[in-house]
Amino acid sequence: MKILLQILALLWSIQSFAHSLMPTIDLGVIDKDRIRSLNNRQFISEDNFVYRPIAHPFDMQMYFFDHTEWLTLEEDLLHWSGAMGVDPRIVLTTLAINSGWSPESEATEDNIAEYKLDIKLIANRLSQLFYHGISQNLSNDDTVAYSISSSLNADTSWTQWVNFYTQWFGEPNSSESKTTAQRPNMQWPWRLGFNWIPNGPHSHTGSGSPLSSVDVSYDWPNWGGQTYSVAAAHDGRVSVFSRCQVRITHPDGWSTNYYHMDGISVQNGASVNKNDRIGTYASQRNVALCQGGSSTGPHLHFSVLFNGRFQSLQDLSLGPYRIDVGRYNYDNNCNYTWMLDSRNNSKRCFWSRIDNP
């Protein structure tokens, strides 16, 4: 019987492996001497590199009101900035230096389509390099400089990058508006009283680190199947990034991302309370992936951040369950990754149905 249960758990884990949101890039070995040789590498702090839509809001119309033809890029920009956790100003500046794009350039159907793809790829590269730098214990200044400079076509573009950023967005806000709150006790991102099935912890991209995210679904249907209401895991203010992605930010600096959404029922800037309904997870693939990516079926991709940086779920409590993330993305071995139910001090495995009391 024990072997049978292990086989069933393995089959379920294969079925509910939800996605690799973006392809993994070749990170290589970090040349620390090269990074430290960059002039003015402290120009952008971590606080201005990560996307904190409440602390550092971005309104594309504010910057490009004389060039409204480029506003068609706004949803792509906000969506991938939110999903990858990189400030839109960073993404746009990198796009400009790499492609020669400028808000003053002529907008055509072809180059808009090209820049939409570039935005996705650039945001992914910046994000993966940033978290790789953190994993290699670079200082904050070196991590940001490494992420940006390694995303440019040539090292000689670093000064151009700084100049473009300053021209369009001004000097970065130097105030480090960070909080030092303890880990909050959140609920699961579905309505209280219902039982859903989470899969294993993984990074926000589906590979690498930190293991900040988990995918949840009521019953993991095929595309077109029945889907259910998504609820706010905590109190906070809403940032709507796209038709399929929302973030909720608490005043203490913690926030949660909700991706693959449909029928978002909250407004950008609105305040919500814990357990408020904010929409459903999408039943149709084209809705769930409103700006691209990949997914094996209807589910909610749920991530946790602190001060704009994706955070490991290790020791985070969702309802009565405290999480041990395991060894790697989507680890399905319950000896290494599990949820500890504080009500009876018992372990529960991922890929099993759990309550949200």
From TrEMBL:
Keywords: Hydrolase, Metal-binding, Metalloprotease, Protease, Signal, Zinc. Residues 229-309 form the M23ase beta-sheet core domain. Its cofactor is Zn(2+). SUPFAM superfamilies: Duplicated hybrid motif. It comes from the Bacteria. CDD domains: M23_peptidase. The keyword Iron does not apply. Coiled coil: none annotated. Residues 1-18 form the signal peptide. The keyword Hydrolase applies. PANTHER family: CELL DIVISION PROTEIN YTFB (PTHR21666:SF288), PEPTIDASE-RELATED (PTHR21666). This is Peptidase M23. It comes from Vibrio zhanjiangensis.
